[in-house]
Amino acid sequence: MLVGTELVANGNFSTWTSDNPDSWTVDGESAPDREISEVGTGEGHGGTGTGLCNLYSSGAYVGLIQTVTVVAGKKYRVSITVDTVTDPSVYFEGGKSADPDRDFLLVLSEAKTYTTTFIAVATTVRLSLRQHGATDVTFDNISVKCDIPTELSRTAQRFSSFPEN
Q: Which tens digit of pLDDT belongs to each residue from 42-52?
């Protein structure tokens, strides 16, 4: 399988404005009990580094949302890297809206890269990282790319190698 171009804006959390990651909607934030903040590798809530995103809550809802454009019926590969888990898990989901219209759901409970695939059922997918309880999770590299079957890719390469008239 090959993958298409990246559909998530600022999935590497490299740009921030006023303590919020660019291209993402922060929902339910109320510092200091519920925060989305920029931290560094190996850091949780209160970290002072840069380049990663931390979702922290002492017990109430906080979330991070982005809507990406997709093609209904196509297969997509989604991934996220969790760097640090200090308190219980965060839900990473995508779909037309909240439950029960999910295209995918990942429970982020340990430091590793999570990957899954889904078939888009609409022309947009709402990506959401959320938790309704106590949590402290740091993550990076959120990605959504269209899966391109290897055979289709090889066929396209053969056709593109014909000389022009």
A: 999 999 999 99
Amino acid at 33: D
Contact 57, 34 (CB under 8 A): yes
- Sorted by where each begins, the domain ranges of the chain are 2-160
Percent residues over pLDDT 70 in the chain: 85
CB 73 within 8 A of CB 131: no
Give the containing element (helix H, strand E) for 84: strand 75-85
Helix (H, G, I), strand (E, B) or coil at 164: coil
Alpha-carbon distance 136 to 36, whole Å?
10
Q: Which fold has domain 2-160?
A: Jelly Rolls (2.60.120)
32-43 core/surface letters (b: 16 or more CB in 10 A; e: else): eebbbbbbeeeb
Look up the pTM and report it: 0.84
Please check the confidence at residue 59 and state whether its pLDDT lies above 80. Answer: yes
Which residues lie across from 54 on neighbouring strands?
37, 138
d(C-alpha 2, C-alpha 153), whole Å: 8
